[in-house]
Amino acid sequence: MRRTRSTAALVAAAVVAGGVALASPAYADPTPAGTFRQLVGVGSDTTQDVLNALAGDTVGGKDYSGTAVKSATGAGIASYDAIGSSTIQTRSGGASFNRPNGSGAGRTALSMSLTGDKFPNNNGVAISGQVDFARSSSGPSFSGNALTYIPFARDAVGIAVRGSGLDSLTSQQLFDIYKANGTRVLGGQTLHPVLPQTNSGTRKFFLQAIGLTEDTVDTSLPTVQENQANTALTQDGSLVPFSVGSWIAQNNGIAPDYSSTAVAAGAHLASVQLPGDTGGVTSPITTVDGKLAPVPHYYENSTFGRDVYNVVPSRAIDTSSVFFDKDLYDVFVTSGDHEAALASENAEKVIAAFGFLNESYNGSINLAKHAKVGGLEIKGLTTPGAPVLQATVGDASVNLTWTAPVPAPAQPVTDYRVTLKDADGGVVATKDVPASTTSYSFTGLATGTYTATVAAATVVGTGAEATWTGALKYASTVKATAAATAYGRTPKVVVTVTGSHSVTPAGPVTVKEGTTTLGTGTLSGGTVTLALSNHLKVGTHSLTVSYGGSTQLNASSAAVSLKITKATPSVATTAPASVAHTARAKATVKVTATGTTPTGTVRIYEGTRVIATGTLSGGKVTVTLPRLTRGRHTLHASYLGSSTVNAKNGANFVIRST
């Protein structure tokens, strides 16, 4: 159950500031030795002890196995300390690699576990798949979206000091003390400033809080393992940034002790003039029922208060990703009705016992609620370029196909993220597909304008998007028929267009042969008959009938074949019934056909013998016959045809020669 600023009862006997020495610290890798669990975490020593407890291990002499945090399937946490043996092995049969010491090293190990690189550098060993999450007491150092920083609890950074002259400090004083060539005397007290080790999240956070960077801090200052007062505060005037939660847990006997010797010698947490406060200084801690406890006002201060995180691969907690890890999600993420195992009431009690505050946003992956995203902590990595995208609209659907980015990214593409948004930019649907898939369809959509994007992803993160924007409508289907038509007659194409979802098509229809438009018409009730030219060439015409679509329907088309045949003519002949054998008769031949005026050659036959020839003009010709011998002559005219009109014999006619 998630509660704000919970300070549930601490679970071990309290030791007030300056109190009794505690037992020697013991390292708390997963116990017993050789234990391997599914969810492996490394990194920050600020949260290592509380994560060890939540993993169910023994911490500070207390057995936490009864409150071990697990996923719904029983996957447990394996939390490896920041310090201990020089190497760790996190998987059965896996590689042994350098122990990551600090938040930065933990995030780097997680990054290299994803890329398969060698940790901590090329002289190390490849650790692909050996780390699942990183403990971090600071936010991202690299921009990007490959890693999600999930708030785990609220901590604060205090200033552990030794010497009464350092009971209260300001940000400006701390800036002056830690800057290059900084102040070394304050109120008559000689100062001995100390910093946590490189890769420490507390170091990074502290420098940011007081306005310094690794380039402007005094690089000659000694460094110690963070949150270890015994090695940092060895003389009066020494001071070191310290996790307040760690200070509370150590001094209450909850966490392994690295500070009791210094505390016995007078070490304590200084009060600080918090930026933005108009009152006096604020102590980070108070005493409740003889136990140290956080001061919420100090923890909530935006300068010295901080969220501490569990860092996970973003794709592993994305429920739509092909790399979604349900066990990781169950343990770390609170979203909607899903509560992280780390947000259970028992888990919150453990978190509070280790000196942290429980916040309502712990476990949230909402970037508006303290979660953060960052890139893999390896220099020089870049996300992929955009794929090459093509889109084909269908029946209230769009089919996307794409090819991989060019040039290919340095890290191989692992998956593609496909997203569909409506006209207002709202996400309608999203889908993650493996790298082997290069197409996806969104179907069953309402009509309207949509934007689809496809982005390639590698372990480095999701790259640039390829984008398509267009209108999605219902499908239309064109059917067309055309009967064979003689040249000269008007060919007709009967078109029927149907629409899906009971939509009756309306609008223009066009018939083309190639790029030439042969006819247009407007649908009425989904049908139209288009009359084409009656002078189309004789032969078979391959036509395309296209419907242009409407506000609700997509355009569509269909192919239809139209056969134009030669016209069938009529041949009529007029000639005198008789002629003197010394004269030459004339015969007039007229050839007609529907819709065209025939051209070409006409012959006059007597039997099978050609006796005269003429050429049509305007569909007729007058032919002068040769002199005929006395007697009865049976003749006929024959039209030889043309490219558009068939040949045809006329009826017999008789001329008597006298």
Characteristics:
658 residues; mainly beta; D-Maltodextrin-Binding Protein, domain 2; Immunoglobulin-like; 5 domains; 9-stranded mixed β-sheet; rod-shaped; disordered N terminus
Please characterize this protein's 3D structure.
The chain is mainly beta and 658 residues long. The protein has five domains: 39-152 and 307-374, no CATH class; 155-295, Periplasmic binding protein-like II (D-Maltodextrin-Binding Protein, domain 2); 389-471, Immunoglobulin-like (Sandwich); 476-565, Immunoglobulins (Immunoglobulin-like), CATH 2.60.40.10; 570-657, Immunoglobulins (Immunoglobulin-like, Sandwich). It has ten helices and 46 strands. The strands form 14 sheets. Strands 1, 4, 9, 10, 14, 17, 18, 22 and 23 form a nine-stranded mixed beta sheet that branches. Strands 32-38-37-34-35 form a five-stranded mixed beta sheet, with no helix packed on it. Strands 40-46-45-42-43 form a five-stranded mixed beta sheet, with no helix packed on it. The longest helix is centred in the N-terminal third of the chain and has 13 residues, at 103-115. The protein is rod-shaped. Residues 1-24 have low confidence and may be disordered.
